[in-house]
Amino acid sequence: MGNLEKVLDYFIEYEGNVLLDNIEIKKDSGYINLLKDDLENIKFIENALWDKKKEKICEVLAKVQWKKIEKHKEVEECIPRIIDGTIKLQDILKQDDYKYANNYYDDIKNISKIIDDNQLFILYPILKVKEKKIPLVSFIMKIKEDKIIVNEYKVQIDAFRIVCANIMDCPVSEVELTMPDFNALFNTISDYEREDLFEIIDIIENELQNKFVEYHTGDMANWNDYNNLAVTKEIILTMDSFGEMKIAPYLDEIKLVKELSTEKESNLLNRYLLGGKEGKSVEKIGTGFNQGSYSGEFPINKKQAKVVSAYTQSQLLAVNGPPGTGKTTVLKEIIADNIVKKAKKLIDVWDTDWSVLGEGRKQEVYLSPLNGQCDYSMVIASGNNKAVNNIGVELLKEIPYFKDLLKESEYGYQGILCARLGKKENMNEFHVAILNPLIKYLKNYDVDEEEKAKECIAEFNELNNKLTTYKQKNENYCKKRNEILMKLAETGLFANQITENEIEKVLEELKNKKNETIETTEEIKKIQNKVDQDINQRNKDINEIQDNIIKYTCIKNDSEDKWNKISQKRKVIFIGKWLANSLARKYGTIAELEQTITVNTDSLEREKSEKIRNEEIYNNLKNEYESLNAKICECKKALEFLNHQLESVSLYKVLKELLLELNKLYSDELKFDIDEYSLNYHTDIVKMRNRAFVLALRLNEYYIKKHAKEISYNLEKVYPDKWFQPFYRSDYKYDQKYQKYMKAQWETIFLCFPIVTTTLHSFDMKKFPMICELYDTLLIDEAGQALIDTVVGPLYRFRKAVIVGDVYQLEPIRKTKQKLLEGYDISEELKEKINIDENSVQHAADRNSEVFDKIAGNKVGIILNEHRRCEESIVQFSNVHVYDNALTIIKKDKPKEFLKSNLCMLDIRGSKTSRNVNDSEVKICKRIVEELLMIHGEEYKSKIGIITPYYNQSNRIKSEIPGVDAGTVHVFQGQEKEVIIMSMVVDNTVKNDGTYFVGNNPNFLNVAFTRAKSQLILVGNYETCKASSNYLKKAVSIVEQRGLIYTLYDQDLLEKQGIEEKYLKQFYGIVACKIGLDKYSYILNESSIGGIISTAQGHKKIFDQVLLNAEESIRIVSPWICASVVNDEFLSKISKLLQAKKEVTIRFGYRDSNFTLNDIASIIETDNLRNSAEADKKALDNLYALLEDRLKYTPPLHSKILIMDDKIMIIGSFNWLSNSGTEKVTRDEVSCITNDEQAINFVKERYFKKAEEK
């Protein structure tokens, strides 16, 4: 058994387990409705089932085309004996009796299924929720000893959730939040072993009554109108073969895929589930040159262009679309491109006739020259009904196509580009409002538009030729530029990006260097020539000196020889003198010779020294000459290198020439460094592509009109009464012949309606035949919200898929975790990847996409990273904490008239109810809306949205603030507003503070933050959010870094942010109450304006009045206690209040410490910074002695609060027990007055009750 088969087996088991979790009773199905007493009458039940089987078999036989009509009556009369088995079905129902013999075996199979079906279902009790009927329990029954007993039963978890939601008056989506033990109770009521179904129902009711004692639920059978729920009196008896139970299609779809895969596997499905060849990084994908554009106004961005390019190269492509990054834009661009490509194919077969398939038969259809390939067919599917509806309606409203057909469309459609199929309402609308009018239009169409069509074809072809020219020239330029830039980079002359200015600068530098090198060479040569002359001169001088040395040497030697001769003669005896004189007369005297020798010796030495000196100079000159020669060689080499560099850099001139040629095509001047994307998505080209798209649609129209006869004939068979009724196959399997019929029909559908939309739940074999690779492209939207196995059937039918979604937005809804994988012989790695409990469609697509991107080092599909919706600070939470800083944010922050920042949090602390409602936040949201409308006008109301995690809170907001869109994130998915207000409904005074629900994963916050275009205002408990250990804390941290926190509970934080007075007044005006004419007004009105106290003296006056006039209680929160306030007069007033049995409680302590009230001196030393420690200690001692345990030391405190009679609360910057309010120079002190009951209760719980517990 291969991995694919094992994976499909696991999916089949999973869907089998959850099959009865989501049953709905089909409308008008004619089901058997029992009375309670009928269950005791086995004969009645058997007869009812027998009659129902007969009815269902008759329905099958009614569709048979008989050779002889009388055969129908004969077979029908035999049905009773066929059911009871006295005659065999095949003995009475024979293939020879069929006019269309191919239907015979399908009918035999269907009738046999009805006859052999012996599994009884009783559905009870039946819940009516709006228009739907769903059973709470599905009982699988069996007959035993003349009794009908329960074999097993299944409580529908969705139905049980609805029951609990109605009892607790909370939304279905919040049942587990409101009731943490919901799953435990569900498991309990699902696990009884009883044979009597009413006993099981009684046990379930008892469990519910015990669980919800305080709700007084009563007998479920008597719920005629319990909130939004009614329980009918019906007890429905049915069988699976009766087709009366409406269930999800996934089980049957996967089973059929498994069966068909033994004959033909889907490469696309294999890739999706099991992976394949390693994908390619998006960095290696170009932006491409597509042929059609949905819009001519603006180009798609670079990453979107890469998606379109990657789509043409891929079988499976995943796209991650973070909020506001234009995933719908990408889908529309792919649609436009495909429609243009399809138009080219139509031109190729424009005059080719259509052929006939199945001539003379009920299934007779025309086959187009495109041969049923359904090339460029597109289906958009999603698990989110709203998402698929939105894009379908947009396509119909935005694109004029067969516009004259819908001149007075009640839906506001411009054309029929899209067939919205899927749920019954869409099918009916398509049938009545689009399909039937088109058939009628084509049947009556008799206008000759051939000339217009030819003109359109000519313009289309000319435009495509022009686009081809642009493409070729763009490619040539980019190719040449890349080659040249590579060569330029290799020169090492460019440290930074190679720009036109840099190249010009480098060229100039190279030319200057070349000139300098040439000049240097010439200078060296001049010097070398001079040295050469000096060398020659020295050589001549040396030669002359050498001649002199020879001359002097000869004279010296001759004189010495003569001197020796004379000297020798003198030594001869007797005649020596004479002989010597004789020679002297010839040679000169000895003295003369000696003189000559001396003179010549001196001259000789002098000449030799001169020669040495000249030879040294000569050698130096020779060395200098060689050195200069070497320098000349270096200069030559440098010159050669410079010439090479100049030659390389001068290639830029080639680019300039190419650019000049390119510029002749475009309306504006292109820059040298224009990249491939900017060229291929130049506005000139985008306009041409959009024109090509418009012309392609027009060509499509002309082609349909040209072949109106064949097309209308085929369309009549699409929806005569039921969808594809003439081609119905009971087992939904199609042999080769029927596959040809279906391909011909679907090609006709996609010719008329290039795009089809449907939900995944409606993507079933009844509407879409299970034929491998029947269609071309499946576009799945919001894939992060669909379970991994829900696209098995759809993918089997397609050749390509683009799967778009975001696993960081809304997640799939899972019924219960099944944990089935342990029993499968599959690798742990694959188990992890296909686990339905953990994986969405987007997860699988991300892993196996043929082109990948990365987030935090993990491979995902191509990330659309250009965020255009929100201003920069608003989207920072998502960018930093969800997408690992992958987003490029286009819109910069702008200051706002209201609260200054585009990212604010209003610290509103009010207690929430058990139903997840916080009225304090509702009031603040209402006042924020009022302020915004005062600034921007009443029409701005439509630009404001309020998001909350809880359904009941959204309902309360809607009732209090009519006209403003409010809801949970599911309502706002895919939407945007100028201003989003987030009501957080978190409260740390209750066990379930809400932080886990809101911030456990980033999905809720990611969606909520990114709905706001220009301002996001969080309303909630800042302290609770900041104290959470999840994404809520991270979100608040972003607000602290990039925005403003407005709070009454931490004056230090408020002051630290340096918020201007104008905006503080806006905040105080929102949170302050309007003082009426009640018993407190005389205390407050004199020193406050609009519920705001703005001076220390005003606070002092009000405090004095409160101490005198409180009727029940005074509660004070003050970080410091000082003698300047807690003096004898103050203590006397407190004493009188206590004597009058009035409650006085005080909480104090600024810096965090472990001190207690036994350490008053240490507390004073730690907190009080004035030079009055002794006096402050004495004041605190006296106060403690007076109040005892009503005085609590609970640091760290930053809030300054005064509560009177638990009816009025004053909160702000004024320190009630350390600021006497009497000093001449004192800083501004601002507080606001509120009578918000939930806010007061919150403060009491937070500061007083919790302190008492400590």
Provide a descriptive summary of the structure in words.
The radius of gyration is 48 Å and the shape is flat. The strands form 9 sheets. Strands 16-17-15-18-19-12-22 form a 7-stranded parallel beta sheet, with helices on both faces. Strands 31-37-36-35-32-33-34 form a 7-stranded mixed beta sheet, with helices on both faces. A 6-stranded parallel beta sheet has the order 27-26-28-29-25-30, sandwiched between helices. The longest helix has 71 residues, at 500-570. It has 44 helices and 37 strands. Among the domains are: 23-245, no CATH class; 500-665, Helix Hairpins, CATH 1.10.287; 867-888 and 896-1070, Rossmann fold (3-Layer(aba) Sandwich), CATH 3.40.50; 1073-1248, Endonuclease, Chain A (2-Layer Sandwich). The protein is an alpha/beta fold and 1254 residues long. α13 packs across α14, α18 packs antiparallel against α20 (590-649) and α42 packs across α43.
Determine the number of helices (DSSP H or I, runs of at least 4 residues).
44
Main structural class: alpha/beta
Main sheet makeup = 7 strands, parallel
Low-confidence stretches: none
Task: Give the key terms.
alpha/beta; Helix Hairpins; 1254 residues; seven-stranded mixed β-sheet
Secondary-structure blueprint of this entry?
Blueprint: H1 3-18, E1 24-25, E2 32-34, H2 42-62, H3 70-77, H4 79-84, H5 89-92, H6 104-116, E3 120-123, E4 126-129, E5 132-135, E6 137-144, E7 147-155, H7 157-168, H8 175-178, H9 182-189, H10 197-211, E8 229-231, E9 235-239, E10 245-246, H11 250-261, H12 267-274, E11 280-281, H13 302-313, E12 316-320, H14 327-348, E13 355-357, E14 365-367, E15 378-382, H15 385-398, E16 418-420, H16 424-443, H17 450-490, H18 500-570, H19 576-587, H20 590-649, H21 651-663, H22 676-680, H23 683-706, H24 708-716, H25 736-752, E17 755-759, E18 775-781, H26 792-796, E19 798-805, H27 828-834, H28 841-848, E20 851-855, E21 858-860, E22 862-863, E23 866-871, H29 876-881, E24 888-891, E25 903-907, H30 919-936, E26 944-947, H31 951-960, E27 965-967, H32 969-972, E28 977-983, H33 995-999, H34 1003-1009, E29 1012-1020, H35 1022-1027, H36 1031-1042, E30 1044-1046, H37 1051-1056, H38 1061-1071, H39 1081-1084, E31 1092-1093, H40 1096-1109, E32 1113-1118, H41 1128-1139, E33 1143-1148, H42 1160-1167, H43 1173-1187, E34 1191-1193, E35 1200-1204, E36 1208-1212, E37 1231-1234, ...
Parallel strand pairs: 11-20, 12-19, 12-22, 15-17, 15-18, 16-17, 18-19, 23-24, 25-29, 25-30, 26-27, 26-28, 28-29, 32-33, 33-34
Antiparallel strand pairs: 1-10, 2-9, 3-6, 3-9, 4-5, 4-8, 6-7, 13-14, 20-21, 31-37, 32-35, 35-36, 36-37
